Amino acid sequence: MPTSALNPAPEVNMATPQHPAFGGSALRQRRSSHSSHSSHSSHSSHSSHSSYAARHPDRVPPKAASPNRAFLAVIGVLALVLLQTFAGLWLFVKGFLLTRHELLGANNCTRPADSAWTLPAPPTAFDDATLLKWAEMLDPQTGLGECRLKPTHSKAVVIVIDALRYDFIAPPPAAGSVSERVDLAWKPNPHYHSVLTLPAQLTAQHGSPVQAKRPGSAGFLAHFVADPPTTTLQRLKGLTAGTLPTFFEAGANFGSAGTGVGRVHEDTWIAQLRASILAQRGADARAGLVFAGDDTWATVLPGLFDNDTMWTYDSFNVEDLDTVDRGVESRLLPFLQPQHPDRKAGVHDHWRLLVGHTLGVDHVGHRFGASHEKMATKLGEMQRFLQNVTDAMDDDTLLVVLGDHGMDEHGDHGGDGELEVGAGIWMYAKSGFGHTARGGKMDAAEYISTPELEALLPSRIAFSPLPSPPYGGHRSIPQIDLVPTLSLLLGVGVPYSNLGSVVPELFAHPDTLLRALRITATQMRTYLAAYATQSPDLTAFRPELDTRWLAAVRIGLGLLVLVLGLASAWVLRSGARAGLIGRLDADADAADGDATVERASSGAEELGRVVYAAVRTPALVGAATGAAVAVATQLVPAGVTSLTLLDGLLAGSAVGSQLGLLLSASSANLRRSIRSQESDSAAVPTTIRVLDAAGWIVLLLHAGSFASNSLLIFEDRFVLLASAVLFLLRGAFAVGAASTQRQQVRLGLMAVVALLLVRAASMPRVCREEQAASCTSTFFAGTAALNSPYVMVGSYAAAYALPRVVAWFLAQSRSYVGVAPMFFTWALRPALMLGAGYWVLDWAVALNAVQASGEAARVEWVKGWVAVVALGLPGVAVVFWVFAPLCLEIRREAAEAEGEKTKVTILGYSNSLGSSYVLLVGAVFAVLFLVTQPAGQLALAAVLVAALAAMELGDAERDRVVLHRQRTETPAGAVHLCAGEVASLALLGYMGLFGSGHQATLASIQWRVAFLTSPTLSYPLSPLLVALNSFGAVSLLPPLLVVLSVVWNATPLPRGSGRKMPTPSVMLHALLTLALYNALLLTASAALAGTLFSRHLMLFKVWTPRFMLAATVALLAQAAAIAAALAGWHTANKVNTIFGTEFA
Predict the structure, then answer these.
(1) Residue 546 pLDDT > 50, yes or no?
(2) Which residue windows does the record flag with biased composition (Low complexity) (predicted)?
């Protein structure tokens, strides 16, 4: 706000030397004066000043006390809250999110296939004991059972087309087969419908296996349903081992390539095939297993393919559409085509398995979206490749073409949306799969289907991208069913850990199908029996109580720690405001002479001492108790997972510290808190109390909305409404309380600007699947995942204008001086413009004209270096900020009359804390600007300017409190940020989250930003870039903005004033309010997901992702709060050094 009586610019009545921290000025060239009448420059570090202080100690104020202890207490309290939150999450997650135990067993059955095998003689009685004894005879290891079938094919070619969605290969509707109603509602997409037609053509030409009356060519085309999370690494586990993934495993996908994370230790059908081949050829022979494509396979299945016939390619470079696909084609075709020019004797002979994993379709989706002309081009390439494969394969070869997952219209995947799980599969053999004895009288799926099974795993699932009719009845199979099916068709054992069944259409004869089902069921029973001895998951059947109690204990402990954490944070927040009673140093004039007395803390330093004394012993006792309980749980029945030592330590120490703090805060502290609230009511205007209540009401409504499925999926609209309401209230109260017309206009303008910018920030939007027709995605240009050139122009303009807008806000307090102009001109603006320019180059490199010119590689190189420089500039800016002086400037005015002294004004003094801190916020913002796509960049720019407008409103609100206290003669004290102001900043963070193209879904993760600086995956930079893109706006910005609001226009108290600034306490109070906001959202999502909705059908689709977002935000935001407080500490040290300001 402009300089006023509440924050005046100091004037010095004579020429004084300028401290180096004042920045560039002509005065820096002057010689030092030996004395000064100004307290603002009396701390100059010149020897003449030191000698003067030695001669006249009564005239020179003592050296200012360091603020280190006060801010160290702030950091300690914030770290305590972070540790307690982590402990609660650790315990809750281990009881809530599913985990899976890997069993390292393998199917070691060596019994050869026997075409004449028959069942053992049936039992003569049918009691349970007799039936179980007879069933043991079907065990292939100890009884007379079989473990494999005679192979239908000796060789197999498996082509994985990454992200091959079912409708990409589904046959087009026959002419006249679609009703007039469907014709009007559905139109084929020219970019991916009826492009890859070979699977449908050959299947229609030769028929499916169940339709065959005699051996011959046959194909099977189906909707291939993946299990979420739909990430490549997890899908490859399911496609090779037949296991089901968990949410925990989704995080391994990023760490897969070259890290060893995500390796499959369980049995797979490829391992079974290799063991079978080497058993015949010898352990030192080549198995003839060949691979080319996605390098994830090298991590998932190391050592299974022959080393000299395994070619891997980088899987994460989404900018490269062709290298992997061309590599797969050039490496595999020589094995199939005898006349291929690259074929070499001894290398391309005697193979048994060819696996190719192409990535072009997936990369086109990530880069451009599904509805783009490059998708048609890529599917056309796959059509030609598959045509070459089918033309070259012989009668003894089985071809399997499949997608590991699907993609949505923007090319994203990872969640459980219909388009993400809807992959396609096509199996084809020129010699067919045998003949049927059913004569087509009954559908094969009906042989193994029951009403109960259809309810769980329907054999036909509608797929919305295709018209229904006629596609309402297409065949759907789970992906894990491929594992036993392919194993038995190739004549090898079913993998030990498999949970899939067989595809009945591929075992056309009823007798063969029955034998296949029996082999699979025997294997599954063996695995489940072994799994029940290692994991509590299955022992619910013997009995359920022994399995569920520990999960309930973990969930209960986790929720207890989270709830106690809320109470602890509230107590700490109250302590930052009114103090906590503890044993502290006595006043110098204490009558009884005791060194310590029971009294309320004053300032952050004493608060930290009280908190430490309250939690130290209870935390140690709790940790010891928790460790003892963990040891005791080792005595629980076998098969039930016990509490680990880490569980016990975390739970005990967290609960102990929380209870110790709560108990110490009871009684006297509680009464003091009530009295403090009563005194605050008198010391705070009614409008501020209303804003404080409005902030808590918004928080409660935000957390309460998680109890409704409908409200939760439209959280982005709630955030917009809540932000608008708060800014409307704040603006109305500010205008109503303004003392002058100029202030009314100015504050009203700030509120209107904030309202308009909040609305603008909500315009870029990515819709989640559940929002359906109620939402229109505006983040990208149309349905493709392309950035609009118009938006990029706007983003570039915003990058240029934003530093000037921030400078305008600084100019209101005459703080745009010193190093600030240089910082904005040579650091912030170039970094922002490079961030916007990167996405322009990213858009340009994909243009057909650039591709045709041959300059695409050069543009890619330039784009990468632009990103490197755009990241490097903020890094250099932060280093500069650490050592830079304050944003100050001294101006001299000549004496107006002879005999008068020169008047010197220090510009920027009233906002010296805020003007310095905003430089750091700008540097962090520049990084977030780069990693956000253009529409999101506009949203972030709107959020930042709205936050600065909120600073001005907040400053006016605190001025109102000061004036109210002066009018009512209320004792002066620290003026804290009200809950409404903190809630506004927290909601702006969520506006940035949703406006940057995200939702609380896995599918909205923008993986492409991992390659901003390099076309290949790099650690740890790539995961860090994705994390910044996904969580930076909601985790990093709010803590920084809260601290900025605390120090904005907080005029330093000069040395000798006899008072200390309560900045550390105010900062702690505000950051704890923000922590309470995030913690309550976390606790609400955890409690609802872990208790009320733990059996809800939408648990893992809606509530679990929201809980994961809340957990990530709570941890990252609290860590960012510590970093923000450290930066505030550093800024306070600068002010302490220059002006002698003391902090408490």
Answers:
(1) no
(2) 35-51
